[in-house]
Amino acid sequence: MIVYVSGPIKDNPTAREDFDAACIFVRSCGHTAINPFDLSDLKPDAGYQKWMRDDIAALVACDAIYLMTGWENSAGARVEFLVAQACGLKIIFSTHWGEL
Question: With helix as H, strand as E and coil as C, how does 22-87 read?
């Protein structure tokens, strides 16, 4: 299963480390993890809308979304959740470890 990792980035000083740890967990469960930090088209100065376009393009190519703790406090993660839901992707919450 290809799993897109989603969670809070803005105003989160440990975001990169949090996403890397979540991806390690997803991979340890035997799945492929998609980390938005690793998307090649994303440049720091690209701007929020470009980031979201690239993120959503990657998301819709996945089988599932893994929502990290605090995702509901992130506007981008909430959009990704709604897109995943609308596209019929499996929704996995980090608080439900056994479902992955």
Answer: HHHHHHHCCCEEECHHHCCCCCCCCCHHHHHHHHHHHHHCCCEEEECCCHHHCHHHHHHHHHHHHC
What does the angle CA 36 – CA 39 – CA 43 come to, to the nearest 5 degrees?
A: 100
| Rounded mean pLDDT, 63-69 | 97
DSSP code, position 5: E
82 inside domain: no
Identify whether 79 is part of a domain.
no
What pTM does this model have? 0.90
What the block records as the tokens of 13 is 């000083």
